[in-house]
Write a structure and sequence with these properties.
The chain is an alpha+beta fold and 488 residues long. The protein is built from eleven helices and 23 strands.
Length: 488
């Protein structure tokens, strides 16, 4: 280990550095899964994979703790693959390049993958650290958590035996999560209507960049800008004034990330060049003022470009700009049952041009109330159906209803108090976790989710607080030790 030399706990950082060398995009986890199986073989641990690709590594109890309850440590193998526009990186081939920046570990120009590579590393450290006392141990590493939860969906009853599960996929040290929102994707396809380029037109490209982006669940209430919405607002206003034509409009990337960048090529009459430039300068100054507190890095750019060979019709330009303007984005309602927590939200995640001259618009909705999740999904669908789009909803995933009487929660809270002299925060999270699906397959499972402090997840700004990793490790291992005092 070189990059993280001297950081504690040493084993966690050693394994995390190794994990950073292994490409592991969602749905393409073969390399990391093979590495985990080889890890188990190297350390003479029982391991198996299911048909979905999930990996389970088991270890017997430390001597004298054989009658303690079996515990499942769970993390997901895959990572969100986001990079800055200027960064050259192939997530299917290239290693992540982590580095230490003061109190944080970051990556150069890409997501770090601490979500949930640090959880995987901690579980592996428990498996190999002979100083950790524990009962029968099962470490479950799931696939495709970030883009479909397909590993958790495909998990078969009986794959593991434990009745207590510690989910290692949360992002705020000192907080215990006992519930999460359910979610669903709403995907829109709109057939383009094109025409030859009219005469006497001028073309410019407008870009919005420099936004923080972030997790569409955990960060949706933090006042962050959506690049698609900011760009579309300007284009819609120009269209109302002058009747512009769209040649292209693209932005965002992943369904569970807030759009950080967007760009469009637009056409207008040559005589309007100065008007457009003045309007752009005014709008850019206005947006910088509006977003200066939450998006200090916001940048808007306008530059002339070559005329394309064809463009979208005026009718289609109107359809797309109106629909994107009307599409809701952000917090829809706050929870009355758990004050301060978002109940329902929606994310306008991405606009892409795909094959067959189709605009693909990806959105995602979340709520801890299933009927409200479907209500906001139907609202998004209704907006786009009014302009003739085809709309499909994904399968969705369930929420995880809080259990304040959880035995493992009581143990974890008491552990934290004894270790750090204060009570942890206990709450639900608006982000999705696999726990709801586990509960469907394994009714009666007693679960909590906790982790070190991560910031900027699902964006190239992702970072993990070094000091909180050690605190989290102490808490995790103390919980395991306390569980050895329980009996099955």
């Amino acid at each position: 280990m070189e990059i993280f030399n001297g950081l504690q706990p040493a084993l966690v950082w050693e394994y995390f550095e190794e994990i950073c060398q292994i490409p592991r995009p969602s749905k393409k986890e073969e390399k990391i899964a093979a590495w985990l199986m080889e890890f188990a073989k190297k350390h003479q641990l029982e391991a198996r994979r299911d048909q979905a690709g999930n990996v389970l590594i088991a270890k017997p109890a430390t001597p004298g703790n054989e009658h303690s309850p079996a515990v499942v440590l769970q993390a997901h193998m895959d990572m969100v693959c986001e990079k800055n526009a200027e960064t050259v990186h192939d997530f299917e081939k290239d290693p992540i390049k982590p580095y230490i920046d003061g109190e944080w570990v970051k990556a150069r120009g890409t997501t770090l993958g601490a979500d949930d590579g640090i959880g995987v590393a901690a579980a592996l450290a428990v498996l190999t650290d002979e100083n950790v006392q524990h009962g029968p141990l099962e470490c479950l590493f799931t696939v495709d958590e970030e883009t479909g939860l397909t590993g958790a969906f495909a998990l078969e009853p009986g794959f593991f035996q434990g009745k207590i599960l510690l989910n290692l996929d949360s992002e705020d040290e000192g907080e215990m999560f006992i519930g999460c929102a359910g979610g669903i994707d709403t995907v829109v396809r709109l057939a383009c209507e094109k025409m030859p380029l009219p005469a006497h037109k001028f073309a410019v490209q407008v870009k919005v960049k420099g936004l923080q982006g972030g997790h569409s669940g955990d960060d949706i209430n933090k006042g962050r800008g959506n690049a698609i919405k900011i760009l579309n607002r300007f284009l819609w206003d120009l269209n109302e004034r002058y009747g512009i034509l769209l040649a292209s409009l693209e932005g965002g990337n992943l369904r569970n990330a807030i759009a950080r960048e967007a760009q469009a090529t637009i056409l207008f009459d040559e005589v309007l060049k100065e008007n457009i430039r003045v309007d752009f300068n005014l709008y850019a100054a206005e947006m910088e003022e509006v977003w200066k507190m939450t998006e200090p890095g916001l940048s808007l750019e306008l530059e002339s470009v070559e005329l394309p060979e064809e463009t979208l019709t005026q009718a289609f330009t109107d359809k797309l700009l109106n629909a994107l303007y009307a599409c809701p984005h952000g917090v829809f309602s706050m929870s009355y049952r758990m004050p301060g927590m978002v109940e329902t939200s929606t994310n306008l995640a991405a606009v892409k041009w795909v094959e067959n001259n189709t605009v693909l618009i990806t959105t995602s909705q979340r709520s801890d109330v299933d009927s409200e999740k479907m209500n906001i999904a139907h609202m998004v669908a209704a907006v786009f159906r009014m302009v003739g789009a085809t709309v499909e909803h994904g399968e969705g995933y369930p929420g995880w209803a809080p259990n304040p009487d959880s035995r493992i929660l009581k143990i974890a809270v008491e552990s934290y108090k004894q270790l750090f002299g204060r009570a942890p925060v206990v709450r639900s999270i608006h982000a999705g976790l696999e726990c709801g699906l586990f509960l469907e397959k394994y009714p009666g499972m007693d679960m909590i989710s906790f982790g070190p402090t991560l910031r900027g997840v699902h964006s190239p700004d992702e970072k993990v607080d070094i000091a909180t990793v050690e605190k989290w490790w102490r808490h995790l291992t103390d919980i395991l030790k306390r569980l050895t005092q329980e009996t099955v």
